[in-house]
Design brief:
The complex is a heterodimer of chains A (299) and B (216).
Chain A (H helix, E strand, L loop, with lengths): L13 E2 L19 H4 L34 E6 L10 E3 L4 H9 L3 E3 L12 H4 L2 H4 L4 E3 L16 E2 L10 H4 L1 E2 L8 E5 L4 E3 L11 E3 L7 H16 L24 H4 L2 H6 L14 H13 L5
Antiparallel strand pairs in A: 1-6, 2-8, 2-10, 3-7, 3-9, 4-5
Helix pairs in contact in A: 6-9
Chain B lengths: L13 H5 L14 H4 L14 H10 L3 H25 L6 E3 L8 H10 L1 E5 L4 H17 L10 H7 L9 H7 L27 H5 L9
The chains are: A alpha+beta (299), B mainly alpha (216).
Chain lengths: 299, 216
């Protein structure tokens, strides 16, 4: 719930799902998610191939707010009518190419326009054609320890100084005007940001609801999350504290019996999945079975 | 208040008691969104520990020439595509009505695959969504100590809302645009976790504590 005039929530372009983990062999490397990029074939990188993301560890450094579950899509449901510059979301719609760029950027350095060894130039230089020209960028003979915008334990950030070829000042696109009840979804590699200042006249409110496939690891996350929910405590990926454990009107696990249907209770780990339902494929049954086991529904 | 409508519960705490409990894990260090991002925590970006140089070397070893050539192709591609995006603006983001999502036009799926972001219209009726917001305000008003909300009736209700998760609904857009997972294929049931964490773009849960109810 962001109110008009707010500029404190001025989070610039960033990507969720870890930072250094995207390069780390023990992070995204576990699923070889970006191997095509590392081999010089970014055109073959398919951001929609989701099975390779199942083994990924996206939180190797105990980041506050870093997500330990797999979210194929980030998303929110709007509770406001909200347009550009009114406290809304911006996304970079380049997806695969932008991903390839922020992954490869750390392997290259500019030759002209920077002081010796520096990675960034002034804002004016950063947007100049000469600075951005292909012949100004060289593959480092000895790799540096830079991973532009990545810091262990913190989210991946992007900026036009660190990532000049993305022209982020212009290529971050506002969501079209949304109305209450509209849902916005964006891919887990997508660069996104929020309006620096909320210049609208009414609140900009969303319910943040990502889209998570049921996987064995997500079922394991759900076990941890369920316990937090039952006790009214912040979810496992957030900082600790009493959370809502002493709130008036907090929803308790037993309240969900009446509040939502069976699918709703399954989504929060309070009801077993129906692995015998008609129309399921063998793989679907298998993962539902595994999830039920992980969640403790099979004894 | 939504919960006031709930009658005497038939089976209080039954499910909670059934739950497998896990050993209380170590909580992450305390902190909020400003801890999650370097630029919000007043730190600067800098080279990382030397191990990362070694890691980078291993990643592209034997493919240096291919990587160099691919970078040039990439820069050329970006040079061509970004002006189109800047010119098109928000219209570059595909949209679909929720009622059409089970039978999405190929143009929508194609654009979603390419753009990685989409707007799905009318997942919840507008008046219902506005009603949720009012109920949320009341929950905060009743609990002025609120620091980030997760388990209010609206939050739990919406995360468990049949339209939001149910069957293939919301994820359908991903199923129809991507190959199905090979190794763990259950795209059908969606696990929309309560408070699935992290993304600071979740304006609601993170911003709320900064606005006590008496703030205009």
């Amino acid at each position: 719930m962001r109110l008009p005039g707010d500029s404190r929530f001025a989070l610039g372009p960033h990507v969720d799902g870890g930072s250094v983990e995207r390069w780390d062999e023990q992070g995204y490397g576990l699923g070889k998610v970006y191997d095509a990029v590392w081999k010089g074939r970014w055109e073959d990188f398919d951001p929609w191939e989701s099975s390779c993301r199942l083994p990924v560890k996206s939180d190797l450094h105990q980041g506050v707010g870093a997500c330990t579950a797999f979210r194929m899509f980030q998303g929110w449901l709007s509770l406001s009518t909200c347009g550009a510059f009114q406290g809304t979301l911006l996304a970079n719609p380049l997806l695969a190419k932008a991903t390839a760029y922020y992954l490869l950027r750390p392997f290259f350095s500019p030759k002209r326009g920077v002081e010796s060894g520096a990675q960034t130039a002034s804002e004016a230089v950063s947007t100049s054609a000469d600075f951005l020209a292909s012949n100004n960028w060289e593959l480092d003979v000895t790799p540096s320890s830079w991973l532009q915008g990545a810091t262990p334990g913190h989210g991946q950030e992007l900026s036009h100084l660190l990532h000049p070829h993305l022209h982020l000042q212009n290529s971050m696109v506002h969501m079209p005007t949304v109305r209450p009840g509209d849902y916005v979804a964006w891919h887990c590699d997508t660069i996104h940001s929020v309006d620096k200042t909320h210049a609208g006249t009414t609140d900009s409110s969303v319910l943040y609801i990502p889209t998570c496939p049921l996987t064995e690891d997500n079922a394991k996350y759900l076990v941890r999350q369920r316990e937090k929910f039952v006790n009214g405590l912040p979810s496992p990926d957030f900082g600790g504290g009493v959370g809502e454990s002493e709130h008036k009107g907090r929803v308790k696990a037993e309240d969900l019996e009446e509040l939502v249907d069976v699918e709703g209770r399954r989504a929060v780990g309070l009801e077993a999945w129906d692995a015998d339902a008609e129309g399921l494929g063998a793989g679907e049954r298998e993962v539902l079975d595994r999830a039920n086991t992980v969640l403790g529904f099979y004894g | 208040m939504m919960l006031s409508a709930i009658r005497t519960l038939r089976t209080p705490a039954r499910r909670a008691l059934q739950l497998r409990t896990v050993a209380t894990e170590a909580s992450k260090r305390a902190g909020d969104i400003s801890d999650a991002f370097v630029s919000l925590s007043g730190q600067n970006f800098a080279p990382l520990a030397p191990e990362y140089a070694g890691l980078k070397g291993r990643l592209i070893r034997g493919h240096e020439d291919a990587v160099r050539e691919s970078w040039e192709r990439l820069l050329k591609d970006l040079r061509e595509e970004i002006p189109h995006i800047v010119e098109t603006g928000s219209k570059v983001i595909p949209e679909i009505d929720f009622k059409d999502i089970d039978d999405a036009p190929e143009t929508f799926s194609k654009e979603l695959r390419k753009r990685g972001v989409a707007v799905i219209r009318g997942v919840v009726p507008e008046q219902e969504a506005l009603g949720w917001k009012e109920d949320l305000r009341e929950y905060i008003r009743e609990n002025p100590q609120t620091k980030g909300m997760r388990y209010g009736p609206i939050e739990m209700g919406s995360r468990s809302n049949t339209h939001q998760l149910s069957h293939p609904r919301t994820p359908k857009s991903s199923n129809s645009t991507g190959r199905e997972p090979k190794s763990s294929p259950a795209p059908t049931p969606t696990c929309s976790k309560p408070n699935a964490s992290s993304c600071p773009t979740g304006i609601a849960p993170i911003q709320i504590p900064r606005y006590p109810p008496n703030t205009p």
